[in-house]
Amino acid sequence: MTLQTAGKGTFLRGGRGGSTALFLIRTGQMRAFVYSEEGREITIYRLFDGDMCLLCAACVVSSIQFDVTIQAEKDTEFWSIPAGVYQKLMAESAAVANYTNELMASRFSEVMSRMEQFMWRSMDKRVAAFLLQEAAIEGTRELRITHETIANHLGSHREVITRTPRDFQSAGMVKLSRGRVTVLDKEKLRALRT
Q: Fewer CB near the terminus (10 Å): N or C of the chain?
């Protein structure tokens, strides 16, 4: 197990040919995402302090049949645990095996929730939910985020995303400026996302 660092924007794993290690986040933030055939991204889950990424080591979870890309969203410090070491721990410890199963179930639920949103919720609801989530993660109403970044998280085109925040601004829910979205009315966004 080694302690490593990754700067914001660093790709730690891309597709099936990536890491044979698991990542345990000490501090920072990563996101796991997949690419569509057209090259669009969609975030399947995010990792924060204390989270572990099992899907980035398909050799531990051998039945994974999709390419997962991992990118540092912030400067991140993490432990890299060789897959063989973790497999041995799972074989020797029922507690580790149970933890792994619970974590996989949790990640699966998170991925299914994202897919449900992607398939069944309108874009305005998805953008409202995303902006509220980002404000909670960052601890501020002033988000340094581009329309392209929002589109990448939500699996959409930038042009589609650009229209939605403009509509929100017209309704007094957000204020837009270059590279920033300021949440003005959380209650209206909450009402919209449901």
A: C
Count of domains forming the chain: 2
Mean of per-residue pLDDT scores for the chain: 87
Same domain, 106 and 25: yes
pLDDT in tens, 70-85: 999 999 999 998 888 8
Instruction: Say whether both 108 and 144 belong to one domain.
Output: no
Judge residue 99's burial from the number of C-beta atoms within 10 Å of its C-beta, 0-12 exposed, 13-18 middle, 19 or more buried.
middle
DSSP-derived secondary structure for 48-70: -TT-EESTT-TTTSTT--S--EE
Domain extent at residue 116: 2-120
Q: Cα angle vertex 191, ends 185, 194, to 5°?
A: 140
Confidence of residue 2 (pLDDT cuts 50, 70, 90): very high
* Whether residues 138 and 61 fall in one domain: no
Contacts of 134 (CB under 8 A, 6+ apart): 143, 145
- Is 127 found in the same domain as 63? no
- What's the CATH number where 62 sits? 2.60.120.10
* pTM for this predicted structure: 0.76
Work out the burial of residue 39: count CB atoms within 10 Å of its CB; fewer than 13 is exposed, 13-18 middle, 19 or more buried: exposed
Q: Which stretches within 121-193 are classed as H helix?
A: 123-138, 147-154, 158-170, 186-193
Domain end, chosen from 69, 88, 120, is at: 120
